[in-house]
Amino acid sequence: MKKTISVLGSTGSIGTQSLEVCEVHDIGVAAIAAHSSVKLLAEQARRFRPDYVGIYNEEKYPELKAELADTNVKIVCGMEGLCEIASLPQCDTVLNSVVGMVGLLPTLTAIDAGKELALANKETLVAGGELVMSEIAKKDVKLYPVDSEHSAIFQCLQGNKRSQLSKVILTASGGPFFGKSYDELRSVTKEQALHHPNWDMGNKITIDSATLMNKGLEFIEAKWLFDLVPDQIEIVVHRQSVVHSAVEYNDYSVIAQLGVPDMKIPIQYALLYPDRMECPTGRLSLTDYGKLTFEKPDIATFKCLGAAIEAIKRGGAYPCLVNSANEEAVRAFLSDEISFIEIGEIVSSVLDKFGTSEINCYDDVMKADTAAREYVRAAIAER
Ligand code: MG
Predict the structure, then answer these.
(1) Which residues surround ligand 1, an ion (CB under 5 A)?
(2) Separation of 151 CA from ligand 1 center, angstroms?
(3) Residue 382 Cα to ligand 1 middle (Å)
(4) How far is CA 194 from the centre of its chain?
(5) Beta partners for residue 257, in sequence order
(6) Quick check: helix, strand or coil at residue 44?
(7) Is 304 helix (H, G, I), strand (E, B) or coil?
(8) pTM of this prediction?
Protein backbone atom coordinates (compact mmCIF):
# COMPACT_ATOMS: atom_id res chain seq x y z
CA MET A 1 0.00 0.00 0.00
CA LYS A 2 1.24 3.48 -0.79
CA LYS A 3 2.69 5.24 2.23
CA THR A 4 1.62 8.77 3.13
CA ILE A 5 3.64 11.16 5.27
CA SER A 6 3.42 14.59 6.83
CA VAL A 7 6.55 16.73 6.80
CA LEU A 8 7.10 19.25 9.58
CA GLY A 9 9.87 21.66 8.61
CA SER A 10 9.33 21.04 4.89
CA THR A 11 11.23 24.12 3.66
CA GLY A 12 14.45 23.31 5.53
CA SER A 13 17.37 21.26 4.28
CA ILE A 14 16.00 17.90 5.52
CA GLY A 15 12.42 18.83 4.59
CA THR A 16 13.19 19.68 0.96
CA GLN A 17 15.30 16.54 0.56
CA SER A 18 12.53 14.46 2.13
CA LEU A 19 10.05 15.76 -0.42
CA GLU A 20 12.51 14.84 -3.18
CA VAL A 21 12.65 11.32 -1.75
CA CYS A 22 8.83 11.21 -1.72
CA GLU A 23 8.78 12.20 -5.39
CA VAL A 24 11.32 9.57 -6.44
CA HIS A 25 9.69 6.73 -4.48
CA ASP A 26 6.02 7.66 -4.91
CA ILE A 27 5.34 8.38 -1.24
CA GLY A 28 2.18 10.41 -0.63
CA VAL A 29 2.37 13.79 1.12
CA ALA A 30 -0.61 14.44 3.40
CA ALA A 31 0.68 17.68 4.88
CA ILE A 32 3.62 20.06 4.95
CA ALA A 33 4.51 22.75 7.46
CA ALA A 34 7.24 25.32 7.88
CA HIS A 35 8.27 28.09 10.26
CA SER A 36 7.87 31.14 8.03
CA SER A 37 9.05 30.53 4.45
CA VAL A 38 5.75 31.37 2.74
CA LYS A 39 6.95 31.40 -0.88
CA LEU A 40 8.67 28.02 -0.78
CA LEU A 41 5.85 26.48 1.23
CA ALA A 42 3.30 27.65 -1.35
CA GLU A 43 5.47 26.27 -4.16
CA GLN A 44 5.69 22.93 -2.36
CA ALA A 45 1.92 22.92 -1.83
CA ARG A 46 1.35 23.30 -5.58
CA ARG A 47 3.86 20.61 -6.44
CA PHE A 48 3.02 17.97 -3.82
CA ARG A 49 -0.72 18.64 -3.43
CA PRO A 50 -1.00 17.94 0.33
CA ASP A 51 -4.37 18.17 2.11
CA TYR A 52 -2.92 20.50 4.76
CA VAL A 53 -0.31 23.25 4.83
CA GLY A 54 0.86 24.69 8.15
CA ILE A 55 2.80 27.80 9.05
CA TYR A 56 4.22 28.10 12.56
CA ASN A 57 4.67 31.88 12.50
CA GLU A 58 1.07 33.08 12.83
CA GLU A 59 1.87 36.52 11.40
CA LYS A 60 2.59 34.83 8.07
CA TYR A 61 -0.80 33.10 7.95
CA PRO A 62 -2.62 35.79 5.88
CA GLU A 63 0.22 35.88 3.35
CA LEU A 64 0.15 32.09 2.95
CA LYS A 65 -3.62 32.14 2.69
CA ALA A 66 -3.40 34.71 -0.11
CA GLU A 67 -0.68 32.73 -1.92
CA LEU A 68 -2.86 29.61 -1.96
CA ALA A 69 -6.24 31.32 -2.38
CA ASP A 70 -6.96 29.51 -5.65
CA THR A 71 -6.42 26.04 -4.14
CA ASN A 72 -8.58 24.03 -1.78
CA VAL A 73 -5.74 23.11 0.57
CA LYS A 74 -6.51 23.54 4.27
CA ILE A 75 -4.21 26.07 5.90
CA VAL A 76 -3.39 25.93 9.61
CA CYS A 77 -1.00 27.91 11.78
CA GLY A 78 0.89 28.09 15.05
CA MET A 79 1.70 25.22 17.38
CA GLU A 80 -1.91 24.08 17.16
CA GLY A 81 -1.54 23.78 13.39
CA LEU A 82 1.69 21.78 13.68
CA CYS A 83 -0.02 19.41 16.12
CA GLU A 84 -3.07 19.04 13.89
CA ILE A 85 -0.77 18.09 11.02
CA ALA A 86 1.15 15.67 13.26
CA SER A 87 -2.00 13.70 13.98
CA LEU A 88 -3.90 13.61 10.65
CA PRO A 89 -5.76 10.32 10.14
CA GLN A 90 -4.63 10.13 6.50
CA CYS A 91 -0.91 10.09 7.32
CA ASP A 92 1.11 7.01 8.33
CA THR A 93 4.39 8.66 9.20
CA VAL A 94 5.32 12.07 10.57
CA LEU A 95 8.73 13.29 9.48
CA ASN A 96 9.71 15.90 12.02
CA SER A 97 12.56 18.11 10.82
CA VAL A 98 11.73 21.40 12.51
CA VAL A 99 14.59 23.29 14.15
CA GLY A 100 14.79 23.43 17.93
CA MET A 101 12.65 22.19 20.77
CA VAL A 102 9.55 23.66 19.13
CA GLY A 103 9.40 20.16 17.66
CA LEU A 104 8.71 18.47 21.00
CA LEU A 105 4.95 18.96 21.24
CA PRO A 106 4.25 17.88 17.63
CA THR A 107 6.41 14.79 18.29
CA LEU A 108 4.41 13.91 21.40
CA THR A 109 1.17 14.56 19.52
CA ALA A 110 2.21 12.26 16.66
CA ILE A 111 3.09 9.49 19.14
CA ASP A 112 -0.23 9.95 20.92
CA ALA A 113 -2.03 9.59 17.58
CA GLY A 114 -0.11 6.34 16.95
CA LYS A 115 1.90 7.66 13.99
CA GLU A 116 5.25 6.26 12.92
CA LEU A 117 7.96 8.84 13.48
CA ALA A 118 10.88 9.71 11.24
CA LEU A 119 12.79 11.97 13.55
CA ALA A 120 15.26 14.58 12.37
CA ASN A 121 14.48 17.10 15.13
CA LYS A 122 17.21 16.17 17.57
CA GLU A 123 16.41 18.85 20.14
CA THR A 124 13.16 17.11 21.10
CA LEU A 125 14.97 13.95 22.16
CA VAL A 126 17.62 16.00 23.90
CA ALA A 127 15.16 18.11 25.86
CA GLY A 128 12.46 15.51 26.41
CA GLY A 129 14.21 12.18 25.79
CA GLU A 130 12.86 10.33 28.80
CA LEU A 131 9.33 11.58 28.16
CA VAL A 132 9.37 10.84 24.41
CA MET A 133 10.82 7.35 24.82
CA SER A 134 8.34 6.38 27.51
CA GLU A 135 5.41 7.61 25.37
CA ILE A 136 6.79 5.64 22.41
CA ALA A 137 6.94 2.50 24.56
CA LYS A 138 3.41 3.08 25.87
CA LYS A 139 1.91 3.61 22.43
CA ASP A 140 4.17 1.03 20.80
CA VAL A 141 4.92 3.27 17.81
CA LYS A 142 7.95 2.96 15.53
CA LEU A 143 10.69 5.57 15.58
CA TYR A 144 13.13 5.79 12.68
CA PRO A 145 16.13 8.08 13.11
CA VAL A 146 16.87 10.44 10.22
CA ASP A 147 20.10 11.95 11.52
CA SER A 148 22.91 10.28 9.52
CA GLU A 149 24.80 9.04 12.59
CA HIS A 150 21.76 7.52 14.25
CA SER A 151 20.55 6.03 10.99
CA ALA A 152 24.01 4.44 10.68
CA ILE A 153 23.78 2.97 14.20
CA PHE A 154 20.23 1.79 13.51
CA GLN A 155 21.41 0.13 10.28
CA CYS A 156 24.34 -1.56 12.08
CA LEU A 157 21.94 -3.01 14.66
CA GLN A 158 19.85 -4.84 12.04
CA GLY A 159 20.13 -8.61 12.24
CA ASN A 160 22.15 -8.58 15.47
CA LYS A 161 21.20 -9.02 19.11
CA ARG A 162 20.76 -5.71 20.88
CA SER A 163 21.74 -7.41 24.15
CA GLN A 164 25.18 -8.18 22.69
CA LEU A 165 25.98 -4.59 21.74
CA SER A 166 28.91 -3.26 23.76
CA LYS A 167 29.18 0.33 22.52
CA VAL A 168 28.52 2.74 19.67
CA ILE A 169 31.09 4.86 17.87
CA LEU A 170 29.56 8.18 16.92
CA THR A 171 31.57 9.86 14.18
CA ALA A 172 31.96 13.64 13.95
CA SER A 173 33.26 15.66 11.02
CA GLY A 174 34.92 18.05 13.49
CA GLY A 175 33.39 21.06 11.71
CA PRO A 176 35.24 23.95 10.09
CA PHE A 177 37.44 24.71 13.13
CA PHE A 178 38.80 21.28 13.94
CA GLY A 179 42.42 21.48 15.15
CA LYS A 180 42.17 25.14 16.21
CA SER A 181 43.24 26.19 19.70
CA TYR A 182 40.92 28.02 22.07
CA ASP A 183 42.83 31.25 21.39
CA GLU A 184 42.43 30.82 17.64
CA LEU A 185 38.69 30.41 18.08
CA ARG A 186 38.45 33.89 19.61
CA SER A 187 38.72 35.53 16.21
CA VAL A 188 36.49 33.31 14.07
CA THR A 189 33.66 35.06 12.23
CA LYS A 190 30.04 34.20 11.59
CA GLU A 191 30.81 33.66 7.89
CA GLN A 192 33.56 31.15 8.72
CA ALA A 193 31.30 29.36 11.21
CA LEU A 194 28.52 29.11 8.62
CA HIS A 195 30.76 27.33 6.15
CA HIS A 196 30.74 23.57 6.78
CA PRO A 197 33.32 21.48 4.89
CA ASN A 198 31.12 18.41 4.14
CA TRP A 199 27.44 19.05 4.73
CA ASP A 200 25.08 21.71 3.40
CA MET A 201 22.60 22.40 6.22
CA GLY A 202 20.51 25.10 7.91
CA ASN A 203 22.15 27.86 9.97
CA LYS A 204 21.37 26.50 13.45
CA ILE A 205 22.84 23.06 12.81
CA THR A 206 25.81 24.51 10.92
CA ILE A 207 26.78 26.62 13.94
CA ASP A 208 26.15 23.60 16.18
CA SER A 209 28.56 21.66 13.97
CA ALA A 210 31.21 24.37 14.29
CA THR A 211 30.95 24.42 18.11
CA LEU A 212 30.59 20.59 18.21
CA MET A 213 27.34 21.12 20.14
CA ASN A 214 25.74 19.13 17.34
CA LYS A 215 27.78 16.10 18.39
CA GLY A 216 26.84 16.73 22.00
CA LEU A 217 23.15 16.75 21.04
CA GLU A 218 23.66 13.59 19.00
CA PHE A 219 25.41 11.95 21.97
CA ILE A 220 22.30 12.58 24.08
CA GLU A 221 20.02 11.54 21.22
CA ALA A 222 21.95 8.24 20.87
CA LYS A 223 21.61 7.57 24.58
CA TRP A 224 17.81 7.75 24.32
CA LEU A 225 17.33 6.15 20.91
CA PHE A 226 19.43 3.09 21.67
CA ASP A 227 19.00 2.85 25.44
CA LEU A 228 22.71 3.31 26.23
CA VAL A 229 24.62 4.63 29.21
CA PRO A 230 26.97 7.54 28.43
CA ASP A 231 30.09 5.35 28.83
CA GLN A 232 28.88 3.23 25.93
CA ILE A 233 29.18 6.12 23.47
CA GLU A 234 32.54 7.05 21.98
CA ILE A 235 32.92 10.11 19.78
CA VAL A 236 35.53 9.88 17.04
CA VAL A 237 36.41 12.73 14.71
CA HIS A 238 36.35 11.50 11.13
CA ARG A 239 36.98 14.40 8.79
CA GLN A 240 35.71 12.81 5.57
CA SER A 241 32.13 12.06 6.79
CA VAL A 242 32.09 8.73 4.97
CA VAL A 243 31.79 6.40 7.97
CA HIS A 244 28.51 7.68 9.40
CA SER A 245 28.91 5.78 12.70
CA ALA A 246 29.63 2.27 13.90
CA VAL A 247 28.73 -0.21 16.61
CA GLU A 248 30.88 -2.64 18.57
CA TYR A 249 29.57 -5.99 19.78
CA ASN A 250 30.73 -8.15 22.67
CA ASP A 251 33.15 -10.04 20.41
CA TYR A 252 34.79 -6.67 19.52
CA SER A 253 33.53 -6.92 15.99
CA VAL A 254 32.89 -3.38 14.77
CA ILE A 255 30.23 -2.82 12.12
CA ALA A 256 30.02 0.54 10.38
CA GLN A 257 27.71 2.12 7.82
CA LEU A 258 29.40 4.06 5.02
CA GLY A 259 28.11 6.22 2.21
CA VAL A 260 28.55 9.54 0.46
CA PRO A 261 27.77 12.46 2.80
CA ASP A 262 24.22 13.03 1.56
CA MET A 263 21.15 13.08 3.82
CA LYS A 264 18.94 11.48 1.19
CA ILE A 265 20.33 8.06 2.13
CA PRO A 266 19.26 8.17 5.82
CA ILE A 267 16.00 9.98 4.94
CA GLN A 268 15.12 7.29 2.42
CA TYR A 269 16.00 4.49 4.87
CA ALA A 270 13.74 6.03 7.52
CA LEU A 271 10.85 6.32 5.05
CA LEU A 272 11.27 3.02 3.19
CA TYR A 273 12.55 0.79 6.01
CA PRO A 274 13.32 -2.08 5.68
CA ASP A 275 13.58 -1.63 1.90
CA ARG A 276 16.71 -0.37 0.21
CA MET A 277 15.98 1.24 -3.15
CA GLU A 278 18.28 3.09 -5.50
CA CYS A 279 19.08 6.53 -4.10
CA PRO A 280 19.62 9.60 -6.31
CA THR A 281 22.92 10.33 -4.48
CA GLY A 282 25.02 7.91 -6.51
CA ARG A 283 27.50 5.42 -5.07
CA LEU A 284 30.45 5.79 -2.75
CA SER A 285 33.87 5.30 -4.32
CA LEU A 286 36.28 4.40 -1.53
CA THR A 287 39.27 4.70 -3.84
CA ASP A 288 38.30 8.30 -4.66
CA TYR A 289 38.73 9.01 -0.95
CA GLY A 290 41.85 6.86 -0.60
CA LYS A 291 42.31 7.60 3.05
CA LEU A 292 39.90 7.74 5.96
CA THR A 293 41.16 9.26 9.21
CA PHE A 294 40.02 8.99 12.84
CA GLU A 295 41.01 11.22 15.76
CA LYS A 296 39.99 12.06 19.30
CA PRO A 297 37.73 15.12 19.81
CA ASP A 298 39.12 18.14 21.70
CA ILE A 299 36.53 18.50 24.44
CA ALA A 300 38.53 21.12 26.38
CA THR A 301 38.52 23.53 23.41
CA PHE A 302 35.00 22.79 22.18
CA LYS A 303 33.24 23.43 25.48
CA CYS A 304 29.72 22.78 24.17
CA LEU A 305 30.55 19.13 23.55
CA GLY A 306 31.89 18.62 27.06
CA ALA A 307 28.88 20.43 28.53
CA ALA A 308 26.38 18.24 26.65
CA ILE A 309 28.10 15.02 27.75
CA GLU A 310 28.24 16.23 31.36
CA ALA A 311 24.55 17.21 31.15
CA ILE A 312 23.39 13.73 30.12
CA LYS A 313 25.63 12.13 32.77
CA ARG A 314 23.89 14.27 35.41
CA GLY A 315 20.46 13.65 33.87
CA GLY A 316 17.22 15.33 35.01
CA ALA A 317 16.68 18.74 33.44
CA TYR A 318 20.35 19.31 32.55
CA PRO A 319 20.16 18.11 28.93
CA CYS A 320 17.15 20.39 28.39
CA LEU A 321 18.94 23.32 30.06
CA VAL A 322 22.08 23.04 27.92
CA ASN A 323 19.98 22.61 24.79
CA SER A 324 17.84 25.69 25.44
CA ALA A 325 20.87 27.73 26.50
CA ASN A 326 22.51 26.71 23.24
CA GLU A 327 19.46 27.67 21.15
CA GLU A 328 19.52 31.13 22.74
CA ALA A 329 23.30 31.49 22.45
CA VAL A 330 23.28 30.48 18.77
CA ARG A 331 20.49 32.98 18.08
CA ALA A 332 22.59 35.68 19.78
CA PHE A 333 25.70 34.68 17.81
CA LEU A 334 23.78 34.78 14.51
CA SER A 335 22.52 38.28 15.34
CA ASP A 336 26.07 39.45 16.21
CA GLU A 337 25.41 39.87 19.94
CA ILE A 338 28.10 37.46 21.13
CA SER A 339 31.33 35.94 19.80
CA PHE A 340 31.86 32.35 18.75
CA ILE A 341 33.64 31.23 21.94
CA GLU A 342 30.98 32.83 24.10
CA ILE A 343 28.50 30.19 22.87
CA GLY A 344 30.55 27.50 24.65
CA GLU A 345 31.08 29.65 27.72
CA ILE A 346 27.36 30.33 28.07
CA VAL A 347 26.30 26.73 27.45
CA SER A 348 28.79 25.28 29.94
CA SER A 349 27.97 27.90 32.60
CA VAL A 350 24.45 26.44 32.82
CA LEU A 351 25.90 23.39 34.58
CA ASP A 352 27.06 25.58 37.48
CA LYS A 353 24.09 27.96 37.57
CA PHE A 354 21.31 25.41 37.85
CA GLY A 355 20.68 22.77 40.50
CA THR A 356 19.21 19.35 39.86
CA SER A 357 15.57 19.05 38.85
CA GLU A 358 13.44 16.27 37.44
CA ILE A 359 11.59 16.03 34.14
CA ASN A 360 8.33 14.15 34.61
CA CYS A 361 6.03 15.81 32.13
CA TYR A 362 5.90 18.26 29.22
CA ASP A 363 5.47 21.23 31.58
CA ASP A 364 8.72 20.34 33.37
CA VAL A 365 10.51 20.52 30.02
CA MET A 366 8.95 23.89 29.22
CA LYS A 367 9.85 25.28 32.67
CA ALA A 368 13.50 24.27 32.29
CA ASP A 369 13.48 25.70 28.76
CA THR A 370 12.16 29.08 29.91
CA ALA A 371 14.57 29.24 32.86
CA ALA A 372 17.60 28.52 30.65
CA ARG A 373 16.57 31.07 28.02
CA GLU A 374 15.95 33.78 30.62
CA TYR A 375 19.30 33.06 32.23
CA VAL A 376 21.12 33.32 28.88
CA ARG A 377 19.35 36.56 27.85
CA ALA A 378 20.18 38.13 31.22
CA ALA A 379 23.80 36.96 31.04
CA ILE A 380 24.19 38.48 27.57
CA ALA A 381 22.55 41.76 28.62
CA GLU A 382 24.78 42.06 31.69
CA ARG A 383 28.10 41.86 29.85
MG1 MG B 1 24.24 14.26 12.29
Answers:
(1) 147-149
(2) 9
(3) 34
(4) 17
(5) 245
(6) helix
(7) helix
(8) 0.95
